[in-house]
UniProtKB/TrEMBL annotation:
This is Putative GTPase, G3E family. Residues 239-333 form the CobW C-terminal domain. SMART domains: CobW_C (SM00833). GO terms for cellular component: cytoplasm. The keyword Hydrolase applies. It catalyses: GTP + H2O = GDP + phosphate + H(+). SUPFAM superfamilies: Hypothetical protein YjiA, C-terminal domain, P-loop containing nucleoside triphosphate hydrolases. Keywords: Chaperone, Hydrolase, Nucleotide-binding. One of its GO terms (molecular function) is hydrolase activity. InterPro entries: CobW-likC_sf, CobW-like_C, CobW/HypB/UreG_nucleotide-bd, P-loop_NTPase, Zinc-reg_GTPase_activator. It comes from the Bacteria. Belongs to the SIMIBI class G3E GTPase family. ZNG1 subfamily.
Length: 334
């Protein structure tokens, strides 16, 4: 049974020194990675899964949105990519995790701009890591509505599909059957061997994605014969991010009107925004998200009594005009 593969009993772990399985969740910006991680954590009652969350922006929003029953369970790396600048931090974190005897599995959520090959190489090349951890699978979440554009805009989006062992075609509620067939065709052209599933809100039977041992080194070397040597990775310099904060309340009506206009006008270049808001008239934090032209807003949890009320917004895109963004944002501050 798959559950047993994911969670060997403590006795087995201690006597046979089984390696800790690692699942890497990848996929372009806004495809549904955090949604998948939360789905896994919700379904995995009582199992100890350490979650490593890596974000491209300088402020970590995903870590705050990830459901975890204790804070120790989540390690966040912001403002750098696991595939390049913070790879050393990943190795150190994994070494720390090996000291935890109760760990059943590790889940890594990469940034939406991560090149998967250098992340994989950490588990194959580094002796300390490969003796304790085994790469179980690369699970790539694909945004059915935006795949075509994402593949056009980003080399990393192509690599994420090409390198996947398992692919979730997510957000099928937003597209037609004809669109799904087209998405499948685009995936097959890049990766004819990955297992493909269709999902809404990344909901999937966990036995299909965890403990599958789907990671296949030989197949990866066929896709990219030099991936174990070529560890330097450079991101497209035109793609950047910035963060805005405010400790004054925000008028969410004004903000939504502005963002809806901006998303329609600049959706080609403004790939992703997400923020937790100190919103005027709301008791709770308000979560705002946009993925290209689609925006959404919802109440999050109540502010904690000892927590400073603060808005944190991250924007990621190509050739973004920070000044223009700041001006628009300031008009929404009450
Ligand atoms: N309609 C629809 N929305 C979805 C679905 N899955 C996720 N979303 C929404 O898409 C947005 C992005 O989802 P996330 O899970 O944050 O995506 P992500 O890949 O973690 O995003 P980044 O970490 O920024 O790259 C959120 O507003 C989700 O609620 C889906 O199947 N259908």
């Amino acid at each position: 049974m798959v559950m047993e593969v994911i969670r060997p009993t403590k006795t087995i772990l201690n006597t046979q020194q089984q390696k800790i399985p690692v699942t890497i969740v990848t996929g372009f910006l806004g495809s549904g990675k955090t949604t998948l991680v939360n789905h896994i954590l919700k379904e995995q009652h009582g199992r100890k899964i350490a979650v490593i969350v890596n974000e491209f922006g300088e402020i970590g929003i995903d870590g705050q949105l990830t459901i975890a029953d204790d804070e120790e369970q989540i390690v966040e790396f912001n403002n750098g990519c696991l595939c390049c600048t913070v790879r050393g931090d990943l190795v150190r974190t994994l070494e720390d995790l090996t000291k935890r005897a109760d760990l059943d599995a590790v889940l890594i959520e990469t940034t939406g701009l991560a090149d998967p090959a250098p992340v994989a190489s950490t588990f194959i090349v580094a002796d300390e890591i490969k003796s304790k951890f085994s790469l179980d699978a690369f699970v790539t979440v694909v945004d059915a509505r935006n795949l075509q554009q994402n593949l056009k805009d980003s080399h990393e989006a192509q690599e994420q599909v090409a390198f996947a062992d398992i692919i979730l075609i997510n957000k099928i509620d937003l597209v037609s059957d004809k669109d799904i067939a087209r998405v499948k065709q685009q995936i097959w052209e890049l990766n004819p061997i990955a297992k493909i599933y269709q999902t809404e809100h990344s909901e999937i039977d966990l036995s299909l994605i965890l403990g599958t041992k789907a990671f296949d080194l030989e197949a990866k070397l066929e896709v990219d014969p030099s991936f174990l040597e070529d560890l330097a990775h450079e991101h497209d310099a035109a793609i950047g991010s910035f963060a805005l904060t405010s400790d004054r309340p925000i008028d969410m009506n004004k903000f939504m009107l502005w963002m809806n206009d901006l998303a329609q006008e600049k959706g080609e270049d403004l790939y992703r925004t997400k923020g937790l808001f100190y919103a005027q008239g709301f008791q709770e934090r308000v979560l705002f998200q946009s993925v290209r032209m689609l925006t959404s807003m919802r109440r999050d949890r109540l502010w904690k009594t000892d927590e400073p009320k603060l808005t944190q917004l991250v924007a990621i895109g190509r050739n973004l005009d920070r000044e223009e963004f700041v001006k628009g944002f300031e008009k929404c501050v009450v």
